C-alpha cells in the first residue's frame, strides 16, 4: 500500500545507480530539498550533520555510502577505512553497525572487481527490507490500535509520540508512525500528541510535517506537557521508535523518552516501542552499555527557522554553557510491549 500525500521512499539510488538521493531533513518542513550523495564522505557528512537521521535511515545511507567507497577503491584497506569512516559518524543507533556489517559480509569474500556492484545491491536490499519491516510493524500495530480503540469507541484514539520515528526516519512507513498511518487509512479515528522534541524539534518539524501531509489529526505539545495529558486521561498509549534495544529489553531513544515512560507508568498508560529486528542489539546486555551521543551545545543554545521576512534565521536561546545528550535509556520494566514485524511482544 502506498501512502498518499508523500514520497514512497525517503532514500533511493541516483539515476545512474552510482549514488544515493535523500531528503535534506534540516530544511523540513520549510523546504523539500532532495540531495544527491556522490561519495562516502558526503554520506558520512549527511549522517553526522543529520541531513538524514533516524536509525534505519542512518543504516540505509551508510550502506550506500559504503558502496560508493568501494566503487572508488574496492581493496581491503578501503573496505576497512570506509567502514570506520561511516561507523564513527554517530554512535548510538545500532542500525548503523548492522547495515555496515551486512554490506561488508556481502562483499568481503568477493573478487575486488565485484565488490561495488554487490555492495549497491545489498544496500538496495536493506532499503527494500526496511520498507517491508516497517509495513509489517504497521500491520501488527494496527491490530493493537483496534483493541485500544475498542475501549473507547466513541472518541478518537489518542496516541502520544516523541521525536520522529516516521517515514523520514526509515525507508518508508516509519516505525512508531506505521500503525498510525495504517489505522488512519483503515478509518480508525486517531489523534496524535506530537512532542516537539527539543532541542532539534524532530517532532514539531518532522512528525507534524508527516502527519499534516497524510491528513492525520495531531497536536504539537511541549515536551513537558505529556505527563499532564496522561494524568487527565487524554493519552490512550505512548508509541515511540528507538535507536537500539538491548538484550534485556532496555530501550535507547531520543532524549526525553524515559521521562514519558515514567509518566506513562505512573498513570497506567501503556508504553509501546516500535522497532524492526535491525534495531535490536543482542550483543549489548543492557542500556547502561549503550554509547549516548553528546551533540553540540549550539543545538540547545540556538534556534533556527524562517523569520518574518521568510529567510532562515537563528535566535539565541541562552548564552550560558549547555549540555546536549541526544538519547536516554528507558528500562525494560517501563515498556508495555514491543511492536515488531513479528507481532506485538511483551518481551523482546
Ligand atoms: C525509527 S528511528 C527513530 C529514532 O531516531 C531518532 O534519533 P535522531 O533523530 O537523533 O536520529 C529518534 O531517537 C527516533 O526515535
TrEMBL record:
Residues involved in substrate binding? 53-55, 90, 202, 253-254
GO MF annotations, alphabetized: S-methyl-5-thioribose-1-phosphate isomerase activity
Q: What is this protein called?
A: Methylthioribose-1-phosphate isomerase
PANTHER family reported for this sequence: METHYLTHIORIBOSE-1-PHOSPHATE ISOMERASE
Q: Which family does it belong to?
A: Belongs to the EIF-2B alpha/beta/delta subunits family. MtnA subfamily.
UniProt keywords (A-Z) are: Amino-acid biosynthesis, Isomerase, Methionine biosynthesis
Which biological process annotations from GO are given for this protein? L-methionine salvage from methylthioadenosine
Record: active site: 243 (proton donor)
User: What is the source species?
Assistant: Sphingomonas kyeonggiensis
Q: What is the lineage of its organism?
A: Bacteria, Pseudomonadati, Pseudomonadota, Alphaproteobacteria, Sphingomonadales
Catalytic function, reaction form: 5-(methylsulfanyl)-alpha-D-ribose 1-phosphate = 5-(methylsulfanyl)-D-ribulose 1-phosphate; 5-deoxy-alpha-D-ribose 1-phosphate = 5-deoxy-D-ribulose 1-phosphate
Can you tell which superkingdom this protein's organism belongs to?
Bacteria
Annotated pathway, please?
A: Amino-acid biosynthesis; L-methionine biosynthesis via salvage pathway; L-methionine from S-methyl-5-thio-alpha-D-ribose 1-phosphate: step 1/6
What does this chain do? Answer: Catalyzes the interconversion of methylthioribose-1-phosphate (MTR-1-P) into methylthioribulose-1-phosphate (MTRu-1-P). Also catalyzes the interconversion of 5-deoxyribose 1-phosphate and 5-deoxyribulose 1-phosphate. Part of a bifunctional DHAP-shunt salvage pathway for SAM by-products.
Q: Name one Pfam family in it.
A: IF-2B
Marked site: Transition state stabilizer: 163
The record's SUPFAM superfamilies line, in alphabetical order, gives: NagB/RpiA/CoA transferase-like
EC annotation from Swiss-Prot or TrEMBL: 5.3.1.23
Amino acid at each position: 500500500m502506498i501512502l498518499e500525500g508523500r514520497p514512497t521512499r525517503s532514500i533511493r539510488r541516483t539515476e545512474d545507480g552510482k549514488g544515493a538521493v535523500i531528503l535534506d531533513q534540516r530544511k523540513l518542513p520549510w523546504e523539500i530539498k532532495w540531495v544527491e550523495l556522490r561519495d562516502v564522505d558526503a554520506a558520512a557528512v549527511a549522517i553526522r550533520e543529520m541531513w538524514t537521521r533516524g536509525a534505519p535511515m542512518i543504516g540505509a545511507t551508510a550502506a550506500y555510502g559504503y558502496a560508493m567507497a568501494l566503487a572508488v577503491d574496492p581493496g581491503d584497506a578501503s573496505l576497512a577505512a570506509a567502514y570506520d569512516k561511516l561507523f564513527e559518524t554517530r554512535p548510538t543507533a545500532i542500525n548503523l553497525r548492522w547495515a555496515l556489517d551486512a554490506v561488508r559480509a556481502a562483499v568481503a569474500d568477493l573478487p575486488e572487481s565485484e565488490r561495488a556492484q554487490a555492495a549497491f545491491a545489498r544496500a538496495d536490499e536493506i532499503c527494500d527490507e526496511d520498507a517491508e519491516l516497517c509495513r509489517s510493524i504497521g500491520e501488527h500495530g494496527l491490530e493493537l490500535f483496534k483493541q485500544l480503540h475498542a475501549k473507547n469507541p466513541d472518541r478518537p484514539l489518542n496516541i502520544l509520540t516523541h521525536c520522529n520515528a516516521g517515514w523520514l526516519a526509515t525507508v518508508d512507513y516509519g516505525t512508531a508512525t506505521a500503525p498510525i498511518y495504517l489505522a488512519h487509512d483503515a478509518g480508525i479515528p486517531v489523534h496524535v500528541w506530537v512532542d516537539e522534541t527539543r532541542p532539534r524539534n524532530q517532532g514539531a518539524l518532522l512528525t507534524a510535517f508527516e502527519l499534516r501531509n497524510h491528513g492525520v489529526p495531531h497536536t504539537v505539545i511541549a515536551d513537558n506537557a505529556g505527563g499532564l495529558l496522561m494524568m487527565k486521561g487524554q493519552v490512550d498509549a505512548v508509541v515511540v521508535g528507538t535507536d537500539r534495544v538491548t538484550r534485556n529489553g532496555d530501550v535507547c531513544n531520543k532524549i526525553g523518552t524515559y521521562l514519558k515512560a515514567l509518566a506513562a507508568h505512573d498513570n497506567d498508560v501503556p508504553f509501546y516501542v516500535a522497532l524492526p529486528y535491525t534495531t535490536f542489539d543482542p550483543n549489548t546486555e543492557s542500556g547502561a552499555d549503550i554509547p549516548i551521543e553528546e551533540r553540540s551545545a549550539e543545538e540547545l543554545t540556538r534556534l533556527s527557522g524562517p523569520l518574518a521576512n521568510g529567510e532562515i534565521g537563528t535566535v539565541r536561546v541562552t548564552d550560558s554553557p549547555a549540555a546536549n545528550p541526544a538519547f536516554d535509556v528507558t528500562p525494560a520494566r517501563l515498556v508495555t510491549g514491543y511492536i515488531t514485524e513479528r507481532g506485538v511482544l511483551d518481551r523482546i
